[in-house]
Amino acid sequence: MKSICLPIILMLSVIFRTAQADEIQLFTWEEYFSDEVIKRFEAETNHTVNQVYFENESLRDEVMYSGKAAAYDLVILDGYTLSVLGEKGILSKLDNALSDDLPLFTDKSEQACHGYGIPYAYGTIGIGFRNSKVKETISSWMDVFDYAKANPGSVIIPDEDMDTVAIALMALGYNPMSKDVSELKQAFVLLQSVIGDLLVFRNGLGYALDKGKQSKMDMAVFYSGEKEQISIATGQDDWEYIIPDEGTLVWHECLSSHTKKPMKPSTIEFLRYINNPANAAKNAQDIWFATANKDALKWANEDYINDEELFPSELTSSKYYNYQLLDYNALKVRGNIINVLSNQ
Predict the structure, then answer these.
(1) What is the C-alpha separation between 160 and 307, in angstroms, rounded?
(2) Can you tell me the distance from the alpha carbon of 63 to that of 72, in angstroms, rounded to the nearest whole number?
(3) In contact, 56 and 158? CB cutoff 8 Å
(4) pTM (whole model) above 0.85
(5) What's residue 213's pLDDT?
(6) Which residues contact 244 (CB under 8 A, 6 or more apart)?
(7) Low-confidence ranges of the chain (pLDDT < 70)
(8) Residue 97's pLDDT is what?
(9) Cα(first)–Cα(last) distance of the chain, in Å?
């Protein structure tokens, strides 16, 4: 009797586990989740994770507003966009998606995710440059524009409504979240003056991943943590990252869900898995970004914890700006600036 029942039980167990297997659709930046952590999750749960990549926030936001994002279980969103989409009723409330026994996130990350997302990462915007190529002292946002004019075909600036205009505003000595039309016009003129000298007008990491060792990029606008990924992708170990004297924007990113996409048990499993402190530390160290998971730092190594690029000691100083909600006109002007530049 036992010899008959045991195989049946084992067979039923396999069938049941297969029936429960699910595919989680994740809309995210490329190289933003550890391959090893994803593989471990798939092996332990029998679920699969399908990652679909976007390269810039404008394209991602088009997907969100069009309703096509309902095809994805989870979407990576910055705190600013998350608050706007949440207020418009496009996102589900996720503040109760994880139980209280999971690790706490940083206070600022929780605030940035506005209850509509699960905190994932945070960081700054700065200048990345190759010290073997760039001999000038780099300390100002204006240095990006000056170097691009002096060295055509070697600099990359991203095509982002908020961030691209922000760096031009800071280069001119203005607040990166300025609503002043005169200041925004000056930012446009500055950006337009170098658009023809840029290597490309796109995200620097995306370019590096595409070109690899054929990269011609010597300087770019970086998001903190990208230096490591770009060095690996290009095989160039001479990249540096600095926060300019005028300051930087502090960004937060969260995992969110479209209101028309019900939260599946497998999605909850995935969120719980990557927020386990040990897994969160492994994930952050493999990709090299600042995790919003406070408990993960207990599992991180010293090189990671002491990395000034990821964890700047002056993060609370006046030179660190936070994203602010902008009115319709300010957003429209920024959108028009990027549209014009993209078509030149």
Answers:
(1) 27
(2) 10
(3) yes
(4) yes
(5) 97
(6) 126, 127, 138, 139, 140, 141, 143, 170
(7) 1-19, 99-103, 315-316
(8) 76
(9) 78
